[in-house]
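Risk mitigation, structural track. In case the binding assays with NPW fail to produce interpretable data, a predicted complex structure has been prepared as a fallback.
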Amino acid sequence: MLSILPGKKIAELDKSYAREVGISSWELMERAAESFVSWFLKGFSGVQEKVFIFSGPGNNGGDGLAIARLLSEKGFAVSVVLFSSKENSSVDWQVNFDKLPEGISRYQYPEIDFELASSAIIIDALFGVGINRALGGEYLEVVNTLNQLSGKKISIDIPSGLPSDSLVEGVAFLADMTVSFQFPKLSLLIPEHSKYVGDLHIADIGIPDSFLDQFGSNKSFVQASDIQKMHKRFDNFSHKGDFGRILLIGGRGGKVGAIILSTCSAMRTGSGLVHVWAEGASKDVIHISCCEAMVEGEKILDELDKFDALGIGPGLGEVPQDLLRNIFQSTGKPMVLDADALNVLSKHPELWDLIPKGSILTPHLKEFERLTGKSSHHFERLDKASEYAVQHKVYLVLKGAFTSISTPDGKQYFNSTGNKHMATAGSGDVLTGMITSFLGQGYDPLNASLCGVFHHGLAGEIASKTKARGMIATDIIESIPSSFLEMQID
Ligand SMILES: NC(=O)C1=CN([C@@H]2O[C@H](COP(=O)(O)OP(=O)(O)OC[C@H]3O[C@@H](n4cnc5c(N)ncnc54)[C@H](OP(=O)(O)O)[C@@H]3O)[C@@H](O)[C@H]2O)[C@@H](O)CC1
Ligand SMILES: Nc1ncnc2c1ncn2[C@@H]1O[C@H](COP(=O)(O)OP(=O)(O)O)[C@@H](O)[C@H]1O
Ligand SMILES: [K+]
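Fallback model:
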């Protein structure tokens, strides 16, 4: 689990880590540069390619100079554009400046012809986490100019102009890709900053997770290796009863498809027994669409105790609040609440304290807004999500890119899988089926949420390799088994 530290803590982290392992701050910068370059070489191997690196006065600029040297050694035609004088730059910047090889072209801003840079790969090393005010003067001017260029643009650590923990003010560099060191800065994970960040890559600089943990952050970025450890192991004598019996409630009226998606995905996630509550003609449709599931009528609501987990909401439509109230009161077990179940909760806050403790709520942004009111930006939304989870002792899965999972003990986890092709009708219903399935298999609510969200995103990534923009929710379901195979979960 990568702790996400606030920008202000990073200088302290660097210093204490360098001291602990007995390396200099320059050596840490060198590791960062090497990690960037090894990522870069996977995507840009054409050694004839031109690279322009814009280097600011701090350590982000220092990273840029180290990267300039390393890329030049690999045969790239590298130019650096400098802004401050040597004596006004950070100590490690100066060391890397002195190490710049002869072959690198140097320009002192404003003496640069942007025509030359227009056909090059642009690397933004102006400012990193040390930015402390909006861009102005020549930095504003250069970022505005670079933003007009059409070549590939890459930011080191964070796009220049973005603060690491708050909303951008004014202008920032528009990167196609951002390579952030060790962990993503919080600011890289919010929708308002997506156009600046582009595709996000995390470059390991070798600081162990356990070392980051000492800084006591309540926010983490979830990795595949974390998820692998959370999975329950089943043995050779396991039978379907060990994989849980769940009940899914929803799919009324014209929305029977929603609960079918949840049902099929629960089966694919490994549930032993999946029951679905259904009304009238939808029973047959469910049977035909997912013959492995058992379809139940109204009476099943009197037998909730026999289920290991419930998932309520996909396609439920408008229902009287009593339906939820009765369910909450007849079982103390955590359950998954999505879609229309959340809409009932939004209209009836008096139900909030009846939600069984440890339940998992999975709103998308609109559903979350109905629940907690409008937010002026995502940082505020994340705070509200955390408050809600703590206050009502539930897990709040706020869906979108980098879905966040807020916990009753005030922690917040950010998912690292998924992509834009998952923004398609029904993909949230798939997630509900997956999380309910894990909960029913005996995963605790945190692990069920984290594993559900991670595998959902990974299945989406796998499906999108062949389906891309044409991907539909069913494709995600079909790729759930591949997500287990990829993670070697048997
Ligand atoms: N573990 C890690 O993550 C590692 C991190 N590393 C790297 O270090 C980076 C952080 O470096 P950093 O602390 O030197 O800050 P950085 O962002 O270069 O800028 C500070 C300078 O800018 C100035 N300044 C600020 N705002 C300004 C503005 N709007 N307009 C104009 N000037 C402005 C400010 O001076 P001021 O004017 O405030 O006196 C100061 O001179 C980090 O992002 C990563 O790339 C790696 O090297 C090693 C491992
Ligand atoms: N751009 C994106 N990147 C990653 N995941 C996404 C993106 N857009 C949507 N998703 C995921 O797809 C799902 C969409 O859920 P939701 O909006 O409830 O869909 P529906 O209501 O149609 O079922 C969520 O799990 C969300 O995290
Ligand atoms: K930068």
